[in-house]
Amino acid sequence: MEQHVSATTTGLTAGVLMSAPGQVMLPRHAEGRPEQLVSWTPVVVDAGTRALRMMIEHELPPGGRFSCRLTASEAAGSTGFRVSMGRQSDGSLAPARVEQLFPPRSLSAILRDPALRCTDGNDIVTALAAPAHAAHVEAVRRLLAAPDRRLPVLVVCSPRTMGPAARFARKAAHRLAGLAHVVLMSSWLALDSFNAAHEAADALVLPRDGARLYWPGTAGRSPWWGPAEVAGDHEALMRQLGRLLAPLSVVARGRDRLWDAVRAAEAVARADALVKRASGNDSAHLAVLRERLEEERALQVELLELNIELEAKIARLEIDKVNLEAQLHAALAGGGVEPAVSPEPPIAEPHDFSTAWDAWTRDSEGALVFTANAKEEWQRSSYPYPERMREALDTLAELAGEWRRRDGELGTSLVSWIGDQTPLDYANSDEPLRRKGLSHFTFENAKWDRQPHIKLDDHTTPDRVGRIYFAIDKTAHRWIVDHVGVKLYRTKSASK
Prior knowledge:
- The protein is 38% helix and 22% strand.
- It has helices at 7-10, 14-17, 105-112, 137-145, 164-175, 188-196, 227-230, 234-249, 257-277, 281-332, 356-363, 372-380, 386-405, 414-421, 431-435; strands at 22-26, 36-46, 49-59, 65-75, 78-89, 92-94, 119-120, 123-124, 130-132, 153-157, 181-185, 211-214, 224-225, 368-370, 425-427, 440-443, 446-449, 453-456, 466-473, 478-486.
- α5 links the parallel β10 and β11.
- The two termini are 56 Å apart.
């Protein structure tokens, strides 16, 4: 939690934070942002039983204080990190109606660590937008229908992986981490398949190039935004989402059992210390007091269980309340008409890319080009999932265009960059291809290395393993695709 108090300027290191309670006022770090009061309380029983609770507070414009409570606890071999946000009310956190929600920096760091599992109830919490192609639609439906889902799901339609809608989805996933799941519907085929299950329920259809927020466990209409809003002012749209989600999800739900375990261990340790210092009749008296303490603790646990049940009921009522408010707001704003659903007409010949090659090159502004061999190999290919290959090439064209606009300077590896932004599986080398002498080809009187490739499916029969092999031209900032089809060294022919 050091990063919230800036050890370089305040001198408050982890050692200082764990040594004694304290507080510090931090100046505003940007124009229009409030000053923040940071306070902390450490609890140390022994090396394996300890905790630190930090409160980050600032004044709310309408009155009151908005608080972010961070708690790190370690007990009985388990370690937990809990984030709760809300309005301070009588010493506890209550729902807060705020428009701009900024997750604490420590939450972002935690969510970026793949070794850590972050949850809200049974919901897995991430700061990433989950990409959904046609093969993932059923999983998205199961998520929306899950009876134990606690968080809303924001589904954004964006067939263009690098377009404004995709950028909005990534921003929303970061800003709404812990408040809502974000799913990026990444193809027309996926959108049509998703909406096909909701033809009889207009309240559930996802608008083309738009977005929709699906509440958990309710049958009411879910708010939606059209393509103009999703492609427009993202900060304005985030403020709308803030108004919807803040009263619902910015609440401390349930008890922090690990923190309670550390505090209980602290109380027991203090009682043990008193017993050791006592003697004679005092010892007998303390034994009676300790018995009463155990009775009080058992009663407290029972009350906590009842409190958890009540909090769950309150959360469900908040869901229904906010959902009704969203419907009323949409009706008053004249937005009650559901988006029209007009499925994209199916492609007559899915395997025919004849008109798409030039479109991919044009859309990427010349950053993705295809050799004659790539087109011939695809024409001969028996790859059974042409729509998946078309979606992969759509995404590759967008990536190539963005890579060119950055002059190839990504600040990270191409493997990480592609993997972080898209569902594509990219590899920069292919050793079997090199050993077989198939790793080079000639294009525009120059020799190129085509080991870099996109993998579609693996660990299946050879006729189902899709591959896109291409060379990287770092001088002209373009990617030269020389093979589209199944795995290259499984085919009978290959250009050299």
